[in-house]
Amino acid sequence: TVPSSPSQSLLFLGLVAAVCLGLNLLFLTIYLICLCCCKRDQDPDSKQPHSCCVTWMAVTAGLICCAAVGIGFYGNSETNDGVFQLLYALDHANQTLTSIDSLVAGTTLQMQGGLEQHLARLNEVLAPRGDYVQTLKLVEQLAGSIVLQLQGLPGWGGVSADLTALSAHVAFVEYYRWLAYLLFFILVLTVCLLACLGLAKRSRCLLATMLCCGLLTLVLSWASMAVDTAAAVGTSDFCVAPDKFIMNQTDDEISAAVAHYYLYCDQSLSNPFQQVLTVFQRSLTTMQIQTQGLIQYALPLFPTAEKDLLGVQQLLNSSETSLHQLTALLDCRGLHKVRGVWVGTQLWGPPALPPALPVSHQDYLDALIGICYDGVEGLLYLGLFSLLAAASFSTIICAAPRAWKQLTGRDRDYDDMDEEDPFNPQARRIATHRPPRGQLRSFCSYSSSLGSQSSLHPPAQTVSNAPVSEYMNQAVLFGGNPRYENVPLIGRGSPPPT
Questions:
Q1: How many domains does the chain have?
Q2: Its pTM surpasses 0.85
């Protein structure tokens, strides 16, 4: 059956990776069973090829492991860069929305608070002139109209809070994702080092530890492969049509119109807030004209009204500055700095932007580039790392039993050797580690009843002792112990050494 939803598709990819893990473990189990059951004769001619096979398998696995870790570091860094670019875009968009709310709140407070106080005092001062009082009422009505229009603007506080929560959640997940992969890389390198040390030192304990850690790392590699593949496919699906995904999140016509305007940002599209901004500008211009007339004609007759009239003029100038800033923030071209974005745009290539337009405030484009370029590329490299790591540790696990069998066979050969054999390498190692003794035990004894070194004495010499004593003195001088191999054979009671 074909998955019917995106979540089911991603779950299907995870199940595919789980099936691959099961097949990998099944293959390793069959291989180990065949290796244990099929015992071949270990003749001397067949030991060297098996040793070379184990060596080459270990070298190949080590090279693949190092290449996988290098690719993994690069992919982890690219993914981290893409996520941080997304976080930067979210923070900048959050600042934009916060600035809009701040301008609306500040202008509303000026119109309802400071302007009304000045108009109330001017009504008392200019009460003798009815025409001036009518002008003040007109200014008050226009201020109320501006406040009413500003209240019609959507409040971005909820969106800003959502962006803040989303940014914090993404930063939290990304930090632990980056740290988990870093620890995973260290584990992979540690297991490879254990494998090299176990083969170099011929330690069965290190090989057993490496085998257990290798199985764990193999499972983690396929789990990482499932997560990376699902994340890359899901992100790629979003990057194919990001505008369609965002439009599907709108639940009413006003939100859909606003989203359509900011996503497409075409010259033929009108700003959904254009009417509010137009009424704001016209009302503010009329208020400024009326206030300027009062300053010009009423101020010479009523000097006490100068402070309040100048205060009204200052508030209107400040509101005009807020109007220009609000117009720039609510215009899509002022936000994106580019015309005709995103839908139908080729995302898998360098964005074609006019060189004369600044691009530092393209929050939407920056977020898409961070996710669809660096993020997806990093996830693909992490998936390749997981695949190479699984192949490397499968090779190591296949080589470990052969190395173990060689070490066991070599120890068995050493155990079969006679400790009294002077050509036994193990006996030589023991002899070199023993402290020097005053007397040596002869390999060829002339009496079977001599059981200890204290009972060994040099035989009596029947020929001239001059050369013998001279040789023994030289032996004592250079070696520390007298030797009897070159003592004349007469009276020695033993056959000559081979």
A1: 1
A2: no
